[in-house]
Amino acid sequence: MDCRRLPAAPDHTATDLPPRRTLLQAAAATALAWLAPVSVGTASASAQASRTARPVAGDHLVRNGDDRAAPLTPADIVAGGAPVIAWPVTPADGVVRNGSRLNRILLVRLAPDGFSAKTAAAAADGIVAYSAICTHTGCEVGTFLAAEQQLYCECHQSRFDPRDQARVVDGPAPRNLPALPLRIEDGRLLVAGPFTTRPGFEQG
Amino acid sequence: MRASNVVLVMAGLTALSLSVVDARQRPAPPPPPAPPLPMPAILKSYPPVTDERLKRPTDGDWLMIRRTYDGWGYSPLEQITAANVARLQPVWSFSTGATNGHEAPPLVNGGVMFVSTPGNQVIAIDAKRGTLLWRYRLPIPEDAVVMHPTSRGVALHGDKVYLAANQGVLVALDARTGKEVWTADVGGNDAGYYMTLAPLIAEGVVMIGASGGEFGIRGFVAAFDLATGKQAWKTYTVPAPGEPGSETWPKGDQWKTGGAPVWVTGNYDAETGIAYWGTGNGGPWMGDQRPGDNLYTASTVALEVKTGRIRGHFQYHPNDSWDWDEVSPPILVDFQRNGRTVKGLVNVARNGYLWFLERGAGPIKFVQGMPYVKHTVFRGLDPVTGRPDVDPERKPATGKKADDICPSHWGGKNWPPIAFSPKTRMIYIPANENLCDWLTGAEVEYEAGERFIGATSGMKLAAGADHVGEVQAWNVDTGKRVWTHPYPTSATWGSMLVTGGGVVFSGGTNDRKLHAFDAATGKVLWEFPTNSGILAPPSSFTIDGKQYIAIQSGWGIDSRGMQSRLNTITNGAYPEVPEGGAVWVFALP
To answer: CB distance B140–A136 less than 8 Å?
Structure first.
């Protein structure tokens, strides 16, 4: 039962070549590894650290459960649809940051004319991103109530307004869902900055 | 000087200067460790907790969460009475430093009080003076799955204190020092298994169960050796194919994620060696996604402590679709029915029915059941088996909304335990009347460690509702309600204590008060507003011959959830309750 289904790290193929800069970094890393074998462990430790580190500007996003780890594009987020649960991916070496569930991100697309100023600034083409971890007791916020335009946590029925910084509309959640600013570059959704507040809940 | 000597001298000077630099750069040797503080006399003289003391505690002891194995929550002490409780005063209070719901009763042995709090914290306090003796914390990983970050208490045996830590670690502490003696990895937190209950100790083992009914776990009770932490047995509360009860899971692999979590401590019959554990909802919430009765969800399971074998069960409602966890274990009390004494079990179920059952060497027999709050789902019970006849209109399913479900998924009574007085022959129930809800099922895909619910819901008040929270008193021999105290502006999450002095104590309300009632009549005799709302069971004990009442105050988690929903549907009549934990001790002047 201990078999968390997570997307595999990206598998770069001939049709999905990494940028030249990445290749150079990889070559340099290989050379250094040959010169100093101890750095292999360091590189591995670095990848592990990247898996658990919070998203940063420049990360792209992949859908939870997508074994191909295809970068999400604006077209993948359907207006009014269920939230897309996603993970951030490091731009340099394609490490999926799925080592911590606090990196689970939800994405929804809404009509931007109802956005508050702060949410409008963090949105990209009507798409907003928030931590998927409820600030009450840490369940995944995975439901969008289309009629009310609210995000909903099934565990304790907290509701959040995704058009206004995911502020708490109802229920026991003590604070907003942390927002993750977005931008669009080369047709892909990218992280534009860190979470606005700490993801997670009060444990005691 | 020859050149070679010059070289030697230069080398020597260099070495000297290096050694000087080394000496300057070298950190000073650490000071010798300070001698340990002398152990307080109260800990030096800490009396071991024996099997015999657990079975037959003295009147002044409170050694386990409900004081006795039968789960009565009854103290025989009678210094504090209905006649003098109005003069009760606080003696001391102690801030726990923790937030969230505090759900553990203070245990007291030899004048040492043990409380557990959210954050995997155990605090030992001089129960007479309110001074800290030691404090233990086991940090919780920041991304651990702990949907209810609380602790419902510790267990005592020998010179150890046992804690079921949230992330799935069973901890044995030295009662005198608070240091870890051993830890046992119960495991599974990545897949949504976590622990919130107090351990149960009997027959040389310490037993625990797993929360996680909203994460598609397969519930279990497991037993560990008291001295070493080695696992003795583990019994799943959802049978595997081929095991008894597996016929109630006729389709596929649904049993693997079938729920039936165990998140409240069982009660124990020392005569038969049977422990009675309650189980929670099925996973996911909608029963049409797991056809069958789904044993042993929403049940009481009779486990033989020596072996872990299931010797009997009683299921309160098959194919649960309402999130009615029946985790509260029945209390063990013999009652009168039709001119005979029944070796009984009494359970106040989350589904809104009060159940009278008969226990024995294992099998559990139905005796009687009746609603104790407004109930709209069962059209009746089978008179022989007690199986409910469910109104299909009130049963939600995938893509189907069921409305006016009473009681709501919070239940007529949630986890807070009832109490029983052998003097009044009454049980005391913290009930929530008039709370109903709607539920709509949805498809859900299993992903280990994430929510596995598949439902949206909303709370509503029954038509004509003029209150929610109540304390009810029922006579177990007549099966009749004797008195009801309604709380006009609050629900209740108040665990119950009743004393030989004829006083019922309970918190649970949003006014932060600890209430004292006349056990015979329900008259309010005394109230005291604490720092926060009270969820935890009160306890009572003596030190130097004087009776004390102790309680932890600390609102949060589900009480916070219910309060916020009531605030919404009443347009602001149920504002947020202050949070933050503290221990309070009261006595007569």
So the answer is: no
Q: How far is A5 from chain B (nearest CA, A)?
A: 7
* Tokens of residue B121, six digits: 């914290």
Does A81 reach chain B within 8 Å, measured CB to CB?
Answer: no
ipTM here: 0.85
Catalytic pick among B323, B325, B437, B518: B323
What is the spatial distance between Cα A194 and Cα B516, in angstroms, rounded to a whole number?
51
Residue B502 zone, left/alpha/beta (φ > 0; ψ -120 to 50; rest)? left
Interchain pair A202, B149: CB under 8 A: yes
In a domain, B504, yes or no: yes
Do A31 and A122 lie in one domain? The reply is: no
Span B301-318, average pLDDT:
98
- pLDDT 10s digits, B364-421: 999 999 999 999 999 999 999 999 999 999 999 999 999 999 999 999 999 999 999 9
Q: Which of B143, B214, B552 to mutate to test the interface with A (most CBs of A within 10 A)?
A: B143
For residues A172 and A136, is the Cβ–Cβ distance under 8 A? Answer: yes
Domain that residue A43 falls in:
18-52
Our answer to whether residue B269 is catalytic in this structure is no
Question: Whole-model pTM?
Answer: 0.90
Domain shared by A48 and A115, yes or no: no
Using one digit for the tens of pLDDT, what is the confidence trace for B468-522?
999 999 999 999 999 999 999 999 999 999 999 999 999 999 999 999 999 999 9
Q: How far is CA B550 from the centre of its chain?
A: 17
pLDDT tens figures, B251-293: 899 999 999 999 999 999 999 999 999 999 999 999 999 999 9
Taking Cα atoms as reference points, which of B433, B537, B536, B436 lies closest to residue B491?
B433
* pLDDT of amino acid A204: 80
Could you tell me if residue A168 is inside a domain?
Answer: yes
Contacts of A64 in chain B (CB under 8 A): 447
CA distance B255 to B498: 40
**In a shared domain, residues A97 and A36:** no
